[in-house]
Amino acid sequence: MQSLSKEDMARRVARDIPDGAYVNLGIGMPTQVANYVSDDRHVIYHSENGILGVGPAPAPGEENPDLINAGKQFVTLLPGGCYFDNADSFAMMRGGHLDIAVLGAFQVSATGDLASWATNDLSEPPAVGGAMDLAVGARQLYVLMKHCTRDGEPKILGECDYPLTGKGVVDRIYSDLAVLDVTDEGLRVVELVGDNTLEQVQAVTGAKLLPPES
Amino acid sequence: MAEAVSVVKDGDVVMIGGFGSSGIPLELIEALRRHAPKDLTIISNNAGVAEEGIASLLRDGLVRKMVCSFPRSKGSVWLQKRYKEGSIDFELVPQGTLGERIRAAGAGLAAFYTPTAYGTLLAEGKETREFNGKGYVLETALHADVALIRGEKGDAWGNLTYNTAGRNFNPSMAMAAKTTIAEVKQIVEVGDLDPEAVVTPGIFVDTVVLQEGLLDAIA
Q1: Which of the residues B52, B84, B164, B196 would you substitute to probe the A interface, choosing the one with the greatest number of A C-beta atoms within 10 Å?
Q2: Within an 8 Å CB–CB cutoff, is residue A132 touching chain B?
Q3: How many domains does chain A have?
Q4: pLDDT digits over B27-75, tens only?
Q5: What is the distance between the alpha carbons of residues A124 and B35, in angstroms, rounded to a whole number?
Q6: CA–CA distance from B132 to each of A139, B115, B136 (Å)?
Q7: Angle CA(A107)–CA(A111)–CA(A113) in degrees, nearest 5?
Q8: What is the CATH number of the domain that holds A154?
Q9: Residue A48 known to be catalytic
Q10: Which domain does A112 fall in, by range?
């Protein structure tokens, strides 16, 4: 089966970020999406710690120690950007003001349940950050993740067996094998990577896949 | 610094501003560590990294309970250690709920319904209710005895400005504590701050202290 590289997965999501959108990119792979949004699209990035208009990393020596993104990396502010406090930042999420959030995930269910913050191992203190607020608040929630775990186990399941971040919150899954929409009928294939067939992708998916709408 | 934090007593609830490495009142935390009150409840987004900030309070055994949203920052060890040995209580709160609980306390609200965490482990045991077909969780206000925050400029009235994303939880925490102490980089004359640029009105701030290089001295 053909599988996209992490860069190509981020590139694929970037194609679907429309001009003028307010977007929050989660920590890790989702942050890379910004690198591939074409320059002719004006996209405004939100960072949960209180920034709209997040720009690229500063040149070495130009870092402002207080100006970081949610992943604690140094960033810059684009012209027109602004700062605000935590309460306003999360009002933007819960209040439905963000157009799109892109998050990573451990598991997604057929009904769009998201599990992204904890496994069943509670020997370490769990961390949740802003994931639950983004999950319920963003108008569109895209998950960007590998289709299977490192051990080849499906991450897309009938029901998540890890603790949930949100119930029925995911709209679309971008994996290295396919793009899937969460619909009222179930998971519908939007596109398959390369020459992958529905049967091949179904074989590594723990929930029934519906064929693309013709 | 030492005099300012001497108001913190054993068993107090202390809010500490900051997000990751940004906007943390590191000198006030160091002064608090030296003051060494016991059995503190600390409310903050993170739990410090390495030996810095809140991690130093956890290391010195001053903390009985930690309330935060993201304790697992790269290089954080002391929260993990205290959690595993079971020597602290630990309450995990989604970040937006943490911020709103703090804001609610400052705004005189007892509680509020949020859609965040509905149907998850973090809503277990909490009252839930449906509004317009959507599920919500009842969350209560989070008050503190003392808030330690960091601003950029402050004046004698307690008016504060911030540096970029260093703002984060600082303005809400200033509102939610009986006593709020702000560490600033610069103290200016009353009237020098542009009234349109004041982010935290002085009514929420009791004491403004100038950074004095407390950490440079020990480094």
Answers
A1: B164
A2: yes
A3: 1
A4: 999 999 999 999 999 999 999 999 999 999 999 999 999 999 999 878 8
A5: 30
A6: 17, 12, 10
A7: 40
A8: 3.40.1080.10
A9: yes
A10: 6-210
